[in-house]
Amino acid sequence: MLKIAVIAHDGKKADMVAFIMKRLDFFKNNQIIATGTTGTHIEHAGIEVIKKKSGPLGGDAQIASMIAEGEIDGVVFFVDPLAVHPHIVDVNMLLRVCNVYNIPLATNYATASLLIEGFKNKKL
Predict the structure, then answer these.
(1) How far is CA 116 from the centre of its chain?
(2) Max alpha carbon distance in the chain (Å)?
(3) What is the CATH number of the domain that holds 66?
(4) Which residues are designated catalytic?
């Protein structure tokens, strides 16, 4: 079972839920870890998720810690490039930790689709 962290900026949360719903077979057979508000949106769609704190309240840091401990296999982080994010330092830290630990990271829908296909085909 893979552990996939999912995070979405406010303007991308609906996209994240749609992304997961379209790939429900994959996500039901693996574990989803999400930041708080993103996780709540996913729960409202009837999908089981392990929620951490909201990103601005430390959720990004909690997921980064899990990456450093070897507990996360991949990250899907739908970034809204057109919005201002007061906790950008936390976002950058999470992206850096993914790179330090060589964790597959997708920051948009198209790349996330390829990432999940790679996991399904066991090529990652």
Answers:
(1) 12
(2) 37
(3) 3.40.50.1380
(4) 60
pLDDT in tens, 54-107: 988 999 999 999 999 999 999 999 999 888 777 788 889 999 999 999 999 999
For 82, residues 6+ apart whose C-beta sits below 8 A from its C-beta are: 11
- For residue 72, what are its two tokens? 């996360």
Report how far residue 96's alpha carbon sits from residue 35's, in angstroms, rounded to the nearest whole number: 17
| Enclosing domain of residue 107 | 3-120
* Tally of domains within the chain: 1
pTM above 0.90, yes or no: yes
Return d(Cα 106, Cα 65) in angstroms, integer: 18
Structure-token match 């201002």, residue found: 84
Tokens, residue 3: 């552990």
DSSP code for 70: T
